[in-house]
Design brief:
The complex is a heterotrimer.
Chain A (H helix, E strand, L loop, with lengths): L1 H22 L3 H21 L3 H25 L8
Chain B lengths: L1 H20 L11 H14 L4 H9 L1 H27 L1
Helix pairs in contact in B: 2-3, 3-4
Chain C lengths: L5 H23 L8 H18 L2 H7 L2 H21 L35 H34 L1
Helix pairs in contact in C: 1-2, 2-5, 4-5
The chains are: A mainly alpha, B mainly alpha, C mainly alpha.
């Protein structure tokens, strides 16, 4: 019961965080929101009893992808342009 | 255009909800022969306590070889792309 | 690339040994606990990425060298394929060391048991090989992107 509740709450937070990642104008904050999505997704995998996938998601998605995006933002520009 | 996007979104969402109603419950697969074989035989055949690792590195070793090859190709591509810029 | 602030550098300096140790634990204990080569290598590479993000390029270049990483990556992949070819007497990827009494060759008790590190034949060796390959490969990607993004910054 409590696991199903945690499941639903985590999925709702994932959706809200990804909407935030689209909405942010500061791209560094957007990258941090994407890392948070990956971290919550690894928690969701752990609740669904897949610890291998959870470790891989936390390592690759939350750490390495965030580092790659940070370097990409640093190489181009930080603020999103208005159209 | 905006109305078309709204209709498309509603169709996709209704399809997702319909799929949710007929979805299989988590943890109860339909075909279980292979799973039962792995669960009963993996420990004595490979000697590993972790059945997932024994599948990844022993029974399905070709998948891991392909994964390693893909990673090697990706790293070679990145090194070729950025190596020239660094030296210049 | 500028160095990040003193807070970031201190925290990454404290966190780095623990992250590396956890990654090597995942690689070596792949046949007993959840984890394995890919996951452990990704964790170790994320620890190195922590250093690369926090410190400046010239200080990282002394510690993490590109040639060493490429050598580690190629030797990991070659070790993996070689281990797969060693069991070619029966099939490709045959586990010829399991229950044989040589290295990693103890037979395991059936059922739920705490586990013995000296079991599982070629699985730990393959796990170590894949772990070396993944850690070196992902570290090369991060290092290349760090230096490449800096080169674009300097030319502008």
């Amino acid at each position: 019961m409590i696991f199903e509740m945690a499941n639903t709450i985590i999925l709702i937070i994932i959706i809200l965080t990804s909407i935030l990642a689209v909405k942010f104008k500061d791209l560094l904050a957007s990258v941090i929101a994407l890392g948070l999505v990956s971290l919550l997704l690894s928690l969701e995998f752990y609740i669904l009893q897949a610890p291998d996938v959870a470790i891989a998601e936390a390592g690759v998605g939350a750490a390495l992808t965030t580092a790659i995006y940070v370097f990409a933002v640093r190489g181009t520009q930080r603020l999103e342009e208005e159209e | 255009m905006r109305r078309f996007a709204l209709v498309a979104l509603m169709i996709v969402v209704s399809f997702l909800f319909f799929g949710m109603t007929i979805m299989h419950p988590i943890g109860k697969p339909i075909l279980q022969d292979m799973d039962n074989y792995f669960i009963t035989h993996a420990q004595e055949e490979t000697g590993a306590n972790n059945v997932v690792t024994s599948i990844v590195f022993d029974y399905r070793g070709f998948d891991t070889l392909g994964e390693a090859t893909v990673l090697f190709a990706a790293v070679s591509g990145v090194a070729m792309l950025f190596g020239r810029r660094i030296r210049a | 690339m500028r160095e990040m602030s003193r807070i970031v550098r201190t925290v990454s300096h404290i966190m780095f040994p623990f992250v590396i140790m956890f990654g090597f634990y995942l690689v070596v204990h792949g046949h007993l606990t959840p984890g394995g080569g890919f996951q452990g290598g990704a964790i170790i590479a994320s620890g190195l990425a922590l250093l690369i993000v926090a410190y400046s390029r010239s200080r990282v270049k002394k510690v993490v060298k590109k040639e060493v990483l490429t050598t580690i990556e190629s030797s990991g992949l070659l070790m993996f394929i070689g281990l797969a070819f060693l069991g070619i007497g029966a099939t490709f990827f045959y586990n010829f060391l399991a229950n044989s009494g040589i290295i990693f060759g103890d037979s395991v008790a059936y059922g739920i048991n705490p586990g013995n590190l000296n079991t599982a034949g070629t699985l730990p060796l393959m796990s170590i090989a894949v772990g070396l390959e993944v850690l070196a490969g992902l570290s090369i990607i991060i290092l290349m992107l760090a230096i490449g993004s800096l080169a674009g910054e300097g030319s502008r």
